[in-house]
Structures are given as C-alpha cells and as structure tokens.
Amino acid sequence: MRIYEGQLAALRWTGRANSEAGRKIAAMARAEREHNRVFDRLLAERRVRPTALSPLWSVAGFALGAATALMGDKAAMACTVAVEETIDEHYASARPRRSATTRPSCAAPSRSSAPRRSSTRTRRWPPAPSRRRPTRR
After folding, report:
1. Is 55 within a domain?
2. Which residues are CB-contacts of 115 (< 8 A; sequence separation ≥ 6)?
3. Out of 26-35, 41-50, 124-133, which region has the weakest mean confidence (pLDDT)?
4. Nearest Cα to 28, choosing from 70, 65, 54?
5. Which of 111, 134, 123 is nearest to 45 (CA)?
C-alpha cells in the first residue's frame, strides 16, 4: 500500500497523476486498500501482534514508490510489477509446504471446514510471562 501511496504522491507532484500509469497505479491502490482492510480484520480477529518493524517498512515502501515514480512511468510500473510478482512467487512457494488440512494464516476461515476453537485454547497477546528461564545455546 505504501509503495502505491509514494508513487501517487510523486506522480501528483510531477503533474503526471492522470497519465496511464497514474490511473493504473490508482486502481491498484484501491484494490490494495480493500486487501489491507481484510488483513487488518483478520489480524484483530486472530489477535496477531503486528511486527515491530511496521514503521520501517511503511517509510521504506513510500520511499521506494516515490523514487521509482520520480524516475518515470516505466520505472514506477516496473517496480509495481516486480513487487506483485515477488508476492505471487511467495504465495506459490508457500502452497506446497502446507498440508491439505492447514489453511494459510492470511486466508479467511471457511465456515464449513474451519475447526471451532474453545475459548480456553485461544492464544492471547501479549502472552502470559513464562516462569521458566530461557535456555542458552
């Protein structure tokens, strides 16, 4: 999302927001916003702690998007295509590692096949402090 925001900011700044690349990037940003809403909902439902590096990735993504858009429409589109291909490859490589009964952590649970968990088995964040001392390796 932040890559698209950086690209759109740079395209607006250079007056190219209405170019063909600008329109395509704006459409992809709208789709990504919906994708982020789904992921944010799943994170909250499953009580998953976000990474502490999120602020760093946010700034880096915006900077990457802005820098490539300032280089031109072709560079902006090349960046977008490369990121999307990398994500697709990541998802494709993760598929064989999962068993047939394991659903990916980012997928919405199926109403018919998702196992019901009792409230006693739900993992909570932050976890309760451990009474054991960490072992040294």
Report:
1. yes
2. none
3. 124-133
4. 65
5. 123
Per cent of the chain over pLDDT 70 is 70
6 inside domain: yes
Nearest to 26 by CA among 7, 40, 53: 7
**Residue 118 domain flag:** no
Find tokens 């709208």 and name the residue. Answer: 30
**pLDDT exceeds 50 at position 25:** yes
Could you tell me the residue range of the domain that residue 36 belongs to?
2-96
Evaluate whether residue 75 is within a structural domain: yes
- Measured between alpha carbons, how far is 69 from 46 in angstroms, rounded to an integer? 36
Comparing 107 with 136, the larger pLDDT belongs to: 136
Judge whether residue 127 has pLDDT over 60: no
137 has a pLDDT exceeding 90: no
Q: Is 55:110 a contact under the CB 8 Å cutoff?
A: no
Tell me how many domains the chain contains.
1
Give dist(CA 5, CA 66) in Å, integer: 8
